[in-house]
Amino acid sequence: MDKAAEIERSIITTYRKRIWGRFVRGVKEFDMACEGDRIAVCISGGKDSMLLAKCMQELQRHSLVKFELEFICMDPGYAPANRRRIEENAEILGIPVKIFESDVFAVSEKLRAEKPCYLCARMRRGFLYERAKDLGCNKIALGHHFDDVIETLLMGIIYAAQIGGMLPRLKSTSHPGMQLIRPLYYVHEKDIITWSQRHKLEFLDCACKFSARVKDDDSLSKRREMKALIEKLREGYPNVDINIFRSMYNVHCDTLISHDFMGREHYFTERYGEKPPED
């Protein structure tokens, strides 16, 4: 059995419960792969997107629902060594990735943005949508996982004074007819790490040349803080991560002073037939 086949098999055997089962649950529950879909799986070079690509390949093989896949990777200006790492891993894993160039890093440097990670992510998303559309796709799949979801929820509360989550599927407002899906929504990062280590796979972390410059004040730093906070809380409450996740299913809007729905703010006094206070 070659390495690619061994890695593929482990997903549906060794990691059947922890990865494959949770992946399939998310895809089914949120209608991520439908008959006739053409899905662009977006490869960043990291462990999450590479696992996503393998799971999507397995799903395509075994699913009764017929859909097509494209595997795309945007090179925003990687150093040659990082570009080679992505190409080599794709070859090892048997992923027929199509790499296209962009000038995201150069633009971020030129603008000297205060939050280059945010700007880079926004620009990447736009490029990926455009490339996917050029390939005839109606969906892009990203590698966000369970931990990303709960960290995003906490980051919003602590740093942005808002309660907001990360949806498993959403329709693009900037690219009509396109949707974004997150098939690893229920998959825990620790299991992705275990999977990659078992097969001695070495993936890219953030290969951006700005990451060192902003390491103390960017969103990556905030996300690391959330990881540390959750780990600390888990010492006393082992299921704290699961409870944070489930809280998104149990939002009691009638206990909130205000909430936004479909772009409109609703103040609690509406329930009493009263006008909200003037700003």
From TrEMBL:
Any GO BP: tRNA processing
Single Gene Ontology MF annotation: transferase activity
Highest taxon above the source species: Bacteria
Residue stretches making up the tRNA(Ile)-lysidine/2-thiocytidine synthase N-terminal domain: 39-204
InterPro entries recorded: Rossmann-like_a/b/a_fold (IPR014729), TilS/TtcA_N (IPR011063), tRNA_thiolation_TtcA_Ctu1 (IPR035107)
A Pfam family the protein falls into: ATP_bind_3
Keywords from the UniProt entry: Transferase
Signal peptide: none
Protein name: tRNA 2-thiocytidine biosynthesis protein TtcA
Provenance organism: Candidatus Caccalectryoclostridium excrementigallinarum
